[in-house]
Prior knowledge:
The complex is a heterodimer.
Chain A: H1 2-30, H2 51-59, H3 62-93, H4 99-111, H5 114-127, H6 146-157, H7 162-169, H8 174-185, H9 187-203, H10 206-211, H11 220-231, H12 239-259, H13 261-273
Chain B: H1 3-47, E1 50-51, E2 59-60, H2 64-71, H3 73-106, H4 111-119, H5 126-136, H6 143-150, H7 162-174, H8 178-189, H9 193-201, H10 206-217, H11 219-234, H12 238-244, H13 260-270, H14 274-300
Antiparallel strand pairs in B: 1-2
Helix pairs in contact in B: 1-14, 2-14, 3-7, 3-8, 3-11, 3-13, 4-8, 5-12, 11-14, 13-14
Amino acid sequence: xxxxxxxxxxxxxxAFTVAFVYPFIWLLxxxxxxxxxxxxxxxxxxxxxxxxxxxxxHEAPLGLWMANTLLVTVLAAVAVTITSAMVAWGFAYFRFPxxxxxxxxxxxxxxxxxxxxxxPVFLIWxxxxxxxxxxxxxxxNLFGSAFYIFLLRQFFMGLPREPFEAAKIDGAxxxxxxxxxxxxxxxxxxxxxxxxxxxxxxxxLMRPLIYLRDSSTFTVPRGLKALLDQFGFGGExxxxxxxTASVITTIPMIILFFLGQKHFVRGIATTGSKG
Amino acid sequence: MxxxxxxxxxxxxxxxxxxxxxxxxxxxxxxxxxxFTAWPVINSAYLSLTxxxxxxxxxxxxxxxxVQLFEDPKVGLALWNTFVFAVLSVPAHLVVALGLALLxxxxxxxxxxxxxxxxxxxxxxxxxxxxxxxxxxNGQDGLINAFxxxxxxxxxxxxxxxxxxxxxxxxxxxxxxxSSVVIILAALRGVPQELYDSALxxxxxxxxxxxxxxxxxxxxxxxxxxxxxxxxxxxxxxxxYTAFFGAGNTTYSNDAALxxxxxxxxxxxxxxxxxxxxxxxxxxxxxxxxxxxxxxxVTRRFVHYEGGNP
Lengths: 275, 310
């Protein structure tokens, strides 16, 4: 009986694994097929070709889009990690009047739908003449982000106080205590923040849709949407181009996941338990 | 000078120094909050009472935009689409995530491998998911209908038949259930084994143990996912926008996929109706608050907290 249950569990898990992974394989395989065969649903292409990759490279400034995305993503992730850690440390370590009320405001901002601030924030960047540039895609991260502040503060609160008090007696200033002791101790949470924001910035479509006008400034997801509009149903029906570009957009995220898998999984698990 | 006189000011100074240091560390958030949250909220409330196209100055129109919300058939349609999607998608998401987490928890070996496989789709950029939806659910050549064909089922035209667009979006959304699986799995690992041991002694079967022990013990996590998933579903944008709408397309490509966030985006950034879009945003805010509030009141009773309800 228990053996049967075990086998059933395995069969079910394997079936779901196929369901979750198959679309990737299907897409990857289609990107190596000539136009006429992309919908034949074969796993191994009948005719193997690299033509699609070469054409995508010629049809779209993919290299430029990649460079734009990488710039935005790195700046967004690094900025939000540094400032969120600073703010989180401010809330976790120091005692000051109004601390809990202020932290309540941090939490409350997470409840506010992005739609409410979306338009006025656009108007701010517009009045600064920055619409059409990459700046609005990352610069807001210089001021921290409520979710990461919350996550990092939880982590800081779990640290013992003694090393900090000891360092203080040894004459270390607040900045030194934060940079030399608190941040290194908090490395797992810092890595999680970097990875989460890297993914969020890499995959975002809405902000590039709002802020980017010229193809030369596009990020990869924005460019992929443009390619879909040009080559998809509304356009020339060159699905092999769209598929290949989708593969190229997705692969960096898969690599990121395998590089930081442990951190991703642990980070997501803690997010849930803090609810 | 007596010691009592010197000590009082000194304590105040330490406190002052600590407060100053704290504010220094928190200052990025305070500035960001004032510039990118507080001011936009005030400005958005003001803009919602105006007509504003970015080029000309806003002109005050009172509550006209809010009156228009009720007269605009697209608002009702968008609310309905979003609501149907959320009602189908959120429970499906939770049930599938719970089922997969229970399966994974029951497997003794290779859980890491399966967890990775389940999580991978979550890494896919939403724009690529929107494209995958068009491809996989394509009525003629799509993989889904080819699969259904194996069982002799003639699959619908998912991406063009208005009745099947939302189910397609719901099913596609299930593909990214992996992060919820990871969260539930972590909660499952935290359920004390003694509870199961004593239930086994009492002769409780798998179903009974799951319903009477597992689900109540992880109910705070399920509640958290329920709330977060609902808020996200009510704001879903990218997948449906990618698949069914385009910047150059000012006629509505597919009314069945017109989610509220998409309509808001179109009003704001395609038609430049910034005032009206601001009113739309406030309506969304009220709807989300109301739904979340109802969920809290209704669902809370079923949530079990260790050490009593807070």
